[in-house]
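Notes, Module 5: Reading structure tokens.

Key idea: the token line is not a picture. It is a compressed description, and you learn to read it the same way you learned to read a sequence, by spotting repeated patterns. We will look at two proteins. The first is printed below with its tokens.
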Amino acid sequence: MLKKLKLKRLISLCLFLLIAQLGFPQLVHDSEMINDATELNREFFGNDEPLSFTLKFDIKTFRKTKSKEEYQAAELIIHFDDSTSISHNIKLRSRGDFRKKYCSLPPFWLNIKNAELGFKDLEDVVKIKVVAHCKKADIYNDYVLKEYLAYKLYNIISPYSFRVRLVKIQYIDTGRDNKITENWGFILEPEDLMEKRLDAHFIKNDRLAMATVNRDIIDRLAIFQYMIGNSDYSVTGRHNLKIISLYGSGPIGNIPIPYDFDYTGFVNTTYAVPGENLGINSVTDRYFLGACRGDYIYELVIQEMNDNKREFLNLLQQFEYISLKQKMETLNYIESYYTEASTKWFISRNLKGTCR
């Protein structure tokens, strides 16, 4: 009887401590957080659930000095769940040639050196890229979400692609009496992390020709870019393409990896305009920039895209964070590619007419 009473008291005490623990959110600082954070989220890019964090910094000063690309101090608070948040002192600065000029809040770097975020895959990472909402209007949140989806679509196509993590960011502007706003953003996989994942290194050469990259991968990439309406990339100059070379086994030749999809017809931002020499009126008009190949090669890649159609559409249909209007626009735009590709003159007119 005495043993049962002691056991009941022990169980009651444990329940009390558990309830007390859950009832009061914890803000854990750098020196205390490592073990808890690692247990909560081991891999930053191994999770498709949106991450929630707060950035506290002088946004007013950031906007005034964004062209200088100077780091400024900030506080990053990662919210793992309703009861656990972790605070870090970091630095940030603006990035991106066009968006730095156009956006009131352009994409930015987070310098997380020595911050110990608690994610295994970020342990040795110094900087991470954040794509922000650019301007206040709601449509810019949709632009961020659609650009994120463009990366996720290419993840389906190839492992030689940037992984991304969606984030809901609460901004606290210390330059304006701690004014609070909240918007969507996403984080790109750092290059040094990709190098480890793929056992590869990035090539810093702007004189590469299309013939230097792997034929199968560039052909697949070119049709994908056509599908999402991207005519703003090139191997030479590495314009919106990163080029890697593998150390170990894998595809032969250099491998192109696309990024920056805000100028695509799929995202369809108000500021995106097509290249002057392309002869198209809008970025929603598709223009093929791939290499000239025989019909058989094109047919193989087109069939691959057909095989991926259901997965593409499922990704877009199941994405719950975008407005219904914008979701329908993305679905209709991808469907319009498949309508084009099913015509008997698709290769001769749409591909061979502008191939390089």
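Here is the second protein, with the sequence above and the tokens below, as before.
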Amino acid sequence: MKILFGIQATGNGHIMRSTEIYKVLKQHPDVTQLDVLISGGKAQMGLPFEVNYEYKGLSFYYGKKGKISVLKSIGKAGFLSIAVALWKVPFKEYDLVISDFEPITLWGAKIAGVKRVGIGNMYSMTSKKFPKTKGTTLTKLITKMMCPTKNKIGMHFRKFDDFIYYPVIRSEIRNAVPVDRNIYLVYLNAFTDNELLKCFTSSSLAHKNFFIYSKTATHPYIVSNCTVMPLNNETFTSHITECSGVITAAGFQTVSEALYLGKKLFVIPIKKQSEQISNAKVLVEMGVATSTELDADAIAAWMNNVNTVQVKFDDDLQNIVDAILNAPHTPKRRRKAA
């Protein structure tokens, strides 16, 4: 079986999750070829496998105060690169196309009539059983337009439907022994480094030590009680294992790993991002602290609260791979001649 695996590289969570799926697929006896296409930008934590195709594609860009900049995202979208990819990538040579919410591969497979499977957190929101929040309907429409497929593998903190699985937790995290070294991990890419430093060096937080993972830093540097770190898989894994708590957006992978490790968790969903708003709603129901703003006083109050939430997610990785490989394929029906 020849497989093309499309990965959205705008978020490092996609790379972490897809790496685990890639490893299992690579060892499967029925898989004779496994190629990778990435789009949306270079993953900052590195790619532990060969990339066969790389295109600019679509990415989210942020303005100030944790908001998505719609105009900036559209202005920097690689529409020409998408058109080139749809023309050049030999989709018809593959038996199966998998997409971790990567649009080029799903549209290419759809046009070529190749079996396709989409995986990701956002597919969970297409379930009628998923909790409704503001923007859910729009997210369903965006998902259908960006990454069209009938074979959906959703992932979430809870199994709301039969096509929804638990998060893929990296083997490094599953095998880790959590400790508490009185440090806090900060991963909030919707904010600039200056905004984060202003918050975490403020008087209410100056007595704590923070490791801030930055989307722009090229080397570590220290400002007062904060160490700003470039994104790196090894150091990130070390810090999330050793920290007292995690302060992050309401994305999926980092939140899932923090929950699995039983780390105190403070979540700030990206504004106007309905997927993250929905994730935050579910997390609140689970007992996780959330906020709509980067607020030093709110974070300080959270630090003084001893409550933590731990979820030892079952290992669904093999179930997810089985669902991918066993997904049905219904070729397009040709119209009969009149």
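Summary for the second protein:
- The domain at 171-303 is CATH 3.40.50.2000 (Rossmann fold).
- Residues 69-76 have pLDDT under 50 and may be disordered.
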